[in-house]
Design a protein that fits this description.
This protein is of the alpha+beta class. It is built from 7 helices and 9 strands, in the order βββββββαααββαααα.
Length: 307
């Protein structure tokens, strides 16, 4: 029996290696604080995920981690036991606001955002109300009314569907510009640029992009978006739904999800043939004419009849 080494609790002396854009770290105002990592409710899974607010809460970034066990980093003169490589990438904060707006829509009336964006398990969600990026784009998913100096909002499902559709179409354009294969010929388990197949259709692109966007919305909303895009029903949900993610409910950065390239390709269930070793290739070239097979030496002997 083999045993696995457990990670010790993190301390204030621990450090991590992070790959992030300059916009996540730069300050637009000297009075703004430093960027801050915060744990919020994942809009797709409902569990905890790690995010980063830029200085002054201007932009939101999601945090994913590339994880390999028993790796560490040499940083200056110290060895950091956590060998994860964290990636900080821009994310639209409206994805995080949508679940709260949908819950508030039950009352079917205009409400202040402060009454809708509340979460006992994730009190940091109120930080979204200060995010400039979120407030500037809120009209894409909600109606707004101004009474005096106060603003009231109400979730709008039709607007949300149109907004998500635009997200899908923008993703399709990005996939085409990047020459990323989305058809049945996608066989790589890594996000590798390959030559496009001539048989790839616009429907393939839409299905693939729908899978990517579905990583940021609930399963119910994903199904409604699928209908809104007028995509055909597929018998196998693996082709249209993202694979399930295994996320840890902790204050640590969440692990990166499974590779996007398997969203819409059934070919991944087929294991590729094993490569032959050099010895096997040499043996295959030998002329076996007249040779007995190995099994013939172990076959039972025929009984001789008594005279």
């Amino acid at each position: 029996m083999t045993s696995r080494k457990k990670r010790l609790p993190y301390s204030s002396h621990d450090s991590w290696v992070v790959v992030a854009a300059d916009s996540a770290l730069e300050k637009t105002n000297l009075r703004d604080g430093d960027p801050i990592f915060i744990r919020l409710r994942n809009p797709a899974t409902g569990s905890a995920s790690q995010y980063l607010f830029s200085s002054g809460d201007v932009r939101l970034y999601e945090v994913k981690a590339f994880v390999e066990d028993f790796h560490s980093w040499f940083i200056d003169q110290t060895v950091q036991r956590d060998g994860r490589l964290l990636y900080v990438t821009p994310m639209d904060p409206l994805f995080l606001l949508l679940p709260y707006l949908q819950n508030g829509a039950v009352q079917e009336k205009f409400q202040p955002l402060q009454q809708m964006v509340m979460d006992e398990d994730y009190p940091g969600c109120t930080r979204l109300l200060k995010c400039t990026q979120a407030l500037d784009t809120l009209h894409h998913v909600a109606d707004e009314r101004v009474v005096g100096s106060q603003k009231f909002h109400r979730y709008n499902h039709e607007k949300t569907m149109d907004w998500l559709k635009k997200k899908v179409l923008n993703t399709v354009n990005a996939l085409k510009k990047s020459d990323i294969s989305v058809g049945g010929g996608v066989k790589s388990t890594t996000f590798v640029r390959v030559k496009q197949e001539t048989s790839v259709t616009e429907e393939d692109y839409l299905s693939y992009a729908h899978g990517l966007i579905s990583e940021y919305i609930s399963e119910e909303l994903s199904k409604e978006l699928h209908k809104h895009l007028q995509l055909p029903e597929i018998s196998s949900p693996k082709k249209v739904e993202p694979p399930s993610k295994k996320r840890k409910l902790s204050d640590k950065p969440v692990e990166a999800g499974e590779d996007y390239t398997k969203f819409n390709s059934a070919d991944f269930i087929r294991k590729p043939p094993k490569k032959m070793t050099a010895a096997q290739k040499t043996l295959a070239k030998v002329d076996k004419t007249g040779m007995k097979t190995m099994s013939s030496f172990f076959s039972p002997k025929a009984k001789q009849e008594k005279k």
